[in-house]
Amino acid sequence: MKYYSTNGDKHPASLEEAVIRGLAPNGGLYMPERIENLPVEFTDKLGEMSRKEIGCTVGRAFFGEDLPEEVIEKIVGETLSFEIPLVKVEERIYSLELFHGPTLAFKDVGARFMARLLGYFTVKKEIKEVHVLVATSGDTGSAVANGFLGVEGIRVHVLYPKGKVSAIQECQFTTLGKNITALEVDGVFDDCQRLVKAAFSDKSLTDRMRLTSANSINIARLLPQSFYYFTGLGELERMTGERGKVVIAVPSGNFGNLTAGLVAHKMGLPVSRFIAANNRNDVFLEYLQTGKYIPRPSVATLANAMDVGDPSNFARILALYNRSHAAITNLISGYRYDDVSISTVISDVCSRIGYTLDPHGACGYLSLTESLRDGERGIFFETAHPAKFKDTVDCFIPGGVKIPDTLQAFMKGKKQSVALSAEYNDFKDYLLSL
Ligand SMILES: *Cc1c(COP(=O)(O)O)cnc(C)c1O
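A: This is the predicted complex of the input protein with pyridoxal-5'-phosphate.
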């Protein structure tokens, strides 16, 4: 399978090139040239299949030409090694809990898949060592670091701003050891990002060592996110004995998660429509309403993983529907919620139903309560465990959120990090010393 760039490309990339490069040379995002239709015998039987069986069938449709069957099975099996339960919250509204992976957020799925795929290509090409550089303001670092933990041939260097990430976030990438090193940069997130970018464009460095990014725009992080759209529908069928009309609400920031759902829909995912649930960063909603896409700086909200003012995957959504506004609005509707609505609904759902929403899932839940029509059932994605946003969520629910054991375990680990200044030369010396 070839991968084209959303900026147009005379030379589409192989899977291997697309995964190693992340971004196409012309600045576009990679998309698969073909999206295979899955047979109805598969989509009709989701309720009878295991997570791994579903993941392998979808994975084969994407990667069957490029990867041997046993490699797909191994990578999918390891990627989906945790539960993805569907929980009934109230009549017709269900939460698909995507937060049971090692870092308690849905990004674990894409990060684990990509790490293993990159590991496979590294071994296959007999590359001695690949260095993954990732700048983080908190959540990406932990998903990437944990995804790559123990993957042979790969060393990960997580750059994070000293004193600017929460204690819970910090322990998730500073306590791992093995092939993961945390670099505590005396600066802000933008400094971390600048250092990483400078390293990628420093030829004297890239001639000596193989550097790659594990950016969220990597196609190998995006496509595997379609797995749980299918497994979620399977769970719904098992739970209710039927399917009916299903609406899926996706709390969205950079729109990778929703894009994976749209790809799944092209493959035959039996869903009638999608909702993009946003916080006050609502450029996509504006596009749905007006047909105009006007990026702007992000504003800070309680659902901070969705604070994105220019979602990169918008280009992929346009590409999927040949830039047709009509086709896009036909399938996707949008909703936006401010911090007051988010905090009110967290408190309300907790006291009324006893279910704890996180600030991102809260937007998804709200959009379903507002938009479900007769005969429809809705699934919203719970994209992170509420304990990841404990400082926020505890303000709105009595007693506070209980920290799950997996997170406790991180917090007991010993913090290890390398202190760095925000000067590029210091970062370069560090890399050259490896
Ligand atoms: C990253 C993230 C989102 C946004 O996902 P996109 O794929 O960027 O739209 C939503 N919720 C949580 C908790 C996240 O970490």
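The first helix runs from residue 15 to 21. The pocket of pyridoxal-5'-phosphate is lined by residues 105, 107, 139, 251-257, 305-306, 360, 383-384 (CB under 6 Å).
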